[in-house]
Amino acid sequence: MGASAAVSSESAEIPVAQLAGFNLQDYLPRRAVDEGPRVQGQVNLPWPEGFPGRQMHKGRFRVYIDEHGRVRRVAVEALEMAPPFVELTQQAFLQAHFEPGKLGGMPVRTWILIEVVYEDSGVVFTQVLSEQ
Predict the structure, then answer these.
(1) What fold, for 15-41+53-128?
(2) Which SUPFAM superfamilies does the record associate with it (predicted)?
(3) Average pLDDT of the chain, as a whole number
(4) Are 62 and 75 in contact (CB under 8 A)?
(5) What is the C-alpha to C-alpha distance for residues 42 and 97, in angstroms, rounded to an integer?
(6) For the chain, how big is the Rg over CA atoms in Å?
């Protein structure tokens, strides 16, 4: 039985995508663990199909990764992107797999802050921001 993903809204303007059974208090910030989570493979972030124009779209997302490396929640922190880019980014990270963060050599639930930039050339950049 697979877990279902839902897109909800903490406020009318800040969408959140998460899997069922998520508890925010169970996750440590990257700065509180010895080793941060590392993505395994690539996160596919295509330009939205049929979206007109090629202007830059940028957003910061808080990605919550459980002790098994599964992304459980993707929440918007700051946004300069159209809704199709937000949804594509959230869904792409919900499907990504990570090597989990570690504390004392043991896997733990961790969150990281990432920035995603869709540039006018169609190139997408992602980076983990400083230890916030």
Answers:
(1) TolA/TonB C-terminal domain (3.30.2420)
(2) TolA/TonB C-terminal domain
(3) 82
(4) yes
(5) 9
(6) 15
pTM of the entire predicted model: 0.81
Pull the structure tokens for residue 25.
């208090």
- What CA–CA distance (Å, rounded) separates 109 from 58? 26
Whether residue 5 contacts residue 17, with contact meaning beta carbons closer than 8 Å, is answered with yes
Give how far Cα 25 sits from Cα of 97, 103, 117, Å: 21, 16, 28
Cβ neighbours around 83 below 10 Å, total: 10
35: burial class by Cβ within 10 Å (0-12, 13-18, 19+)? middle
- Residue ranges of the domains in the chain? 15-41+53-128
